[in-house]
Amino acid sequence: FIRQVHELSLQAVPILAVTGILLYIGAFSIGMGAVPWVVMSEIFPINIKGRDGSLATLVNWFGAWLCSYTINFPMTWSSYVNALAILFLIMVVPETKGRTLEQIQAAING
């Protein structure tokens, strides 16, 4: 936007905008963006996977919008927000590697 305002290499402005969007999508996908999809595919039983998967998708997209809309507010408070999110995942989200669906449900119902 600075280049556009100062009329510096105007041909590069659209390329920079698209590159910025692609970098954002890639960083989100590598980070916390995939967590709901992985958890949803491993935790829901077959008989409710469609209905609850749709609800999880709605919550995921709403959460993505909320994060995108409010990302500047927590970053001005503290840069440790991401560390808290990772700590939350470690403490709350169960490990599912090498477990059957029944074992995962038994661990959640605990």
Automatic annotation (TrEMBL):
<keyword id="KW-0812">Transmembrane</keyword>
<dbReference type="InterPro" id="IPR050549">
    <property type="entry name" value="MFS_Trehalose_Transporter"/>
</dbReference>
<dbReference type="GO" id="GO:0016020">
    <property type="term" value="C:membrane"/>
</dbReference>
<dbReference type="Pfam" id="PF00083">
    <property type="entry name" value="Sugar_tr"/>
</dbReference>
<dbReference type="GO" id="GO:0022857">
    <property type="term" value="F:transmembrane transporter activity"/>
</dbReference>
<feature type="transmembrane region" description="Helical">
    <location>
        <begin position="12"/>
        <end position="40"/>
    </location>
</feature>
<protein>
    <submittedName>
        <fullName>Sugar transporter ERD6-like 7</fullName>
    </submittedName>
</protein>
<feature type="transmembrane region" description="Helical">
    <location>
        <begin position="77"/>
        <end position="94"/>
    </location>
</feature>
<dbReference type="InterPro" id="IPR005828">
    <property type="entry name" value="MFS_sugar_transport-like"/>
</dbReference>
<keyword id="KW-1133">Transmembrane helix</keyword>
<keyword id="KW-0813">Transport</keyword>
<keyword id="KW-0762">Sugar transport</keyword>
<dbReference type="InterPro" id="IPR003663">
    <property type="entry name" value="Sugar/inositol_transpt"/>
</dbReference>
<comment type="similarity">
    <text>Belongs to the major facilitator superfamily. Sugar transporter (TC 2.A.1.1) family.</text>
</comment>
<keyword id="KW-0472">Membrane</keyword>
<dbReference type="InterPro" id="IPR036259">
    <property type="entry name" value="MFS_trans_sf"/>
</dbReference>
